[in-house]
Amino acid sequence: MKLQSIFLLLCIFFITDSSAQFYTDGPVEIAFRLKQFTTNYTVASDSTQLGPSFAPDEYRMKFWVKDTADLDGQGWVGGQCAQAEMSPQDTSDVLNMEFFHHFYLDDTISPRYFALTIEGWEDDVPSDFPTQDCEMGTSCDYDCCSICCGILLFGTCVGVHEEDDRYCLAYRLTNTFDYRSYGPPGQWNSTGFLSINCGQYIPELEVFWDYIPTCDSISAVGHNKITNNKVRLLWARQGNEVGFNLRGKRLGSSSWITVPIDNGLAQGRTISNLTGKKYYIWQIQGICDSTGTIQTPWSKLDMFYTGCEPIDTQFVFPLNPTSARLQWDDTDDAVAYEILIQKQHSPPADTFIIGGANSFLDRHNLEENTTYFWKVRSWCDLIGTNTSFWTNHFEFTTPASFNRGGCATPTNHWESHISPTSARLRWDSVPGAYSYKIRGGRDGTSQVVELNHGPNQPILLKE
Question: Is residue 362 included in any domain, yes or no?
């Protein structure tokens, strides 16, 4: 067999549209992939150095794409090579080979058109000289003048092919490939089989594009449930996150520890294995796409101290002229609570220690119309050496006795639901009344009952 050497020089000149080719509805995500390819090639076999070869032809293709507005700051992107062994006029297996994927993050511009180039060649016997496999293939310079060679040998363009090997610039669009024209956003849309320059190599591409949701920085961060070795970190999600990156470190350390969180609905994470009695700082960022490309800036820093968990909520209810119930939210690991209460301008404070199963303290014998201050902290041991920080001072003022404020006498009292052993006592409510006292008796005796429930609430008496 006669071996022929063909020096291939292919120059294609095209006009670049210098106008701004972009939409104004970014940010967008855009991707291209080869689904499969076919051929209308009719030669049944190739010639080789040793005679005809009846093996299936080995078709190869390379793919290049370019954003014609250069919004991604890149030239031609791609170079991936697809290869399939098949007889002429067959169709390859489904390949789904992705050769372009980019996120255009500007929220005001996105590309409208792409340039697309597909090269194809065929050489069914890899032992032929020179081997033309996917790693070598052709070499083209499309930004210059579309010069293509079979191979580059020591910087020299050498176009050596077998007698009936075919090279083809299979598909070429300069500035008119509109990715949006093939289907709606959010899915892979087929281009169908594309054939422009030659029929030996006819690819079917799929185009994906979608709007990227905007992702705002997380502004609300905090913590609770602190112990000597763990903490619950909290944040308020913004709505479009698919995940988060959480990072933290001991105060003064130079190394961050990052924890990825795949759940975009999460608003808290418990962190364990911390060192007791140390300050830590942490922050979080949102992730708004499945690849992790779209990330928010890091949130502000939040700081906490590992130790006995401090109490974050305290209140007083109910409050009477001479008594009050001091209440707070319980904490993990607390075995006791220490409470200080002091009358305004009258030190020292009274100290109370109660078991960790309780989260309130009733105080009686208070002075009416008087201001008091109180605070509370957790104990995480029984001797008070491992305690939380004190809460802030909480202020409350006992009310004056109602009979000094012109409280009216209840009128129109009556009974209902009378039975041999019970009766319901009712009365009209008195404006401004906080509670009621009821006097009654039987067989010449009387008893006073003090009620703390609201106005006009009946009381049920039973034998």
Answer: yes
Write the DSSP symbol of residue 207.
E
* In-domain check, residue 6: no
Q: Do 184 and 47 fall within a single domain?
A: yes
Q: Which residues constitute the domain of residue 368?
A: 314-397
Among 250, 284, 305, residue at a domain's last position: 305
Q: Does residue 7 lie in a domain region?
A: no
Residues 6 or more apart in contact with residue 12 via CB below 8 angstroms: 145, 146, 169, 172
pLDDT tens across the length of the chain (463 residues): 332 332 222 222 222 333 334 555 668 889 999 999 887 766 544 544 444 444 556 677 788 888 877 777 777 887 777 877 777 778 888 989 998 898 887 777 788 888 888 877 665 444 344 444 554 545 554 444 444 555 555 555 555 444 344 566 667 777 788 898 999 999 999 999 887 666 677 889 999 998 877 778 898 999 988 888 899 999 998 888 899 999 999 999 999 999 999 999 999 999 999 998 899 999 999 998 777 878 888 999 999 989 888 898 999 999 998 899 999 998 888 999 999 999 998 888 899 999 988 899 999 989 999 999 999 999 988 888 889 989 999 999 999 875 555 566 776 677 877 777 777 777 766 666 667 777 777 766 666 665 554 444 555 555 5
* Interatomic CA distance for residues 96 and 35, integer angstroms: 4
Residue 346, domain member (yes or no): yes
Q: Is the full-model pTM beyond 0.70?
A: no
**CATH number for the domain including 241?**
2.60.40.10
